[in-house]
Amino acid sequence: xxxxxxxxxxxxxxxxxxxxxxxxxxxxxxxxxxxxxxxxxxxxxxxxxxxxxxxxxxxxxxxxxxxxxxxxxxxxxxxxxxxxxxxxxxxxxxxxxxxxxxxxxxxxxxxxxxxxxxxxxxxxxxxxxxxxxxxxxxxxxxxxxxxxxxxxxxxxxxxxxxxxxxxxxxxxxxxxxxxxxxxxxxxxxxxxxxxxxxxxxxxxxxxxxxxxxxxxxxxxxxxxxxxxxxxxxxxxxxxxxxxxxxxxxxxxxxxxxxxxxxxxxxxxxxxxxxxxxxxxxxxxxxxxxxxxxxxxxxxxxxxxxxxxxxxxxxxxxxxxxxxxxxxxxxxxxxxxxxxxxxxxxxxxxxxxxxxxxxxxxxxxxxxxxxxxxxxxxxxxxxxxxxxxxxxxxxxxxxxxxxxxxxxxxxxxxxxxxxxxxx
Length: 422
Ligand code: SAJ
Known about the structure:
Layout: E1 8-12, H1 18-27, E2 31-35, H2 39-46, H3 57-66, E3 70-73, E4 81-84, E5 90-91, E6 94-95, H4 98-107, E7 116-119, H5 127-138, E8 156-159, H6 169-175, E9 178-182, H7 185-196, E10 203-207, H8 208-238, H9 243-250, H10 273-280, H11 286-315, E11 321-325, H12 340-351, E12 355-359, E13 376-378, H13 382-387, E14 391-394, E15 413-416
Helix pairs in contact: 1-3, 4-5, 8-10, 8-11, 10-11, 11-12
The protein binds ligand SAJ.
């Protein structure tokens, strides 16, 4: 029995956030039911196995399943708290909240007086308030909370965004501070009791709307800062200045901390979340939109450089062979989602110019969009990839590429999008 009275927690959505959250709460001895619409995911978790790549997660999940505090199912069951961690994709300029709505519909029948609902999915401001309206319509017998009112309610509802970095999810779930935005202050306090079960960071209380905007702002902040670095790389190219050296020097100023230019911004968060702000307030978010555009344009600039390098080799009568180093969306992960490097590789493979040697140390085989393409070869030996190429393109500075010596690059045309050899 936990002191908070939160004895059974139902976590909806067992993906990159829901599964680690469910496993961590269960590891504290609290009963957790993880819900996922995919039967295969549910079966796998009930066997103590996981379907995503995240350091240490399988051990924590397996232990929780073995000690009987974590089990998975396909439909919500009565619980004291419901944590919604389902995807909120962005399609054609609009946030798609269908999964949040489906989660609301699925928990409504099992809700009882005293329950807590927490939304964690990245959402446009106002989504948690709409979730309350949905619950109120489906369960008129329950007194729901209202913004700005303080009377006692039958259920509590709050928004608490996740802010963990893929690859460090368990550590960051434990240690990061959390922003907890209740529909009312009483809702925030109830949600704080839930996060106290496993979170060592500060639990910062605010409104649901502010917490929703705060999550979007964190990722838009990073996007705008990366766009600044990417814009500087264009400016410096034009003015024949080494952007990496220039940024290194500028960062010696005590109040300047410029991020690193790259081939573009990937992943399923930073390249997406700023659009939620632009959708909600298009006239007022010019800088945020512009940053997205600057970052989205970056892969095309890299492609122009690769094209020029190939043309140079052809003019010199050399047979064309392009080595593309890295496909993931950032260093030392296997995640190819929204990866600018992958988009670049697909485009180069589509040109049909000589041979294309693709290296990605974190995956076992080429993704479908590249495998079997004429002239494309997957090369697991980093040194051979470089040796066989006339043009070497550094797309993702994975750790194994540090073994490439400058001698190996002699006589080759280099396109370095990460400043590794610049
Ligand atoms: N990138 C650059 N230059 C840089 C830093 C990053 O080009 O100087 C690129 C990366 O190569 C990558 C993209 O940006 O393509 C995003 O990578 P990231 O490491 O900045 O962030 P993510 O997407 O792995 O995780 C982010 C984090 N948000 C912030 O740092 C504000 C994480 O804390 C969030 O929890 C996560 O988004 C999320 O789920 O929203």
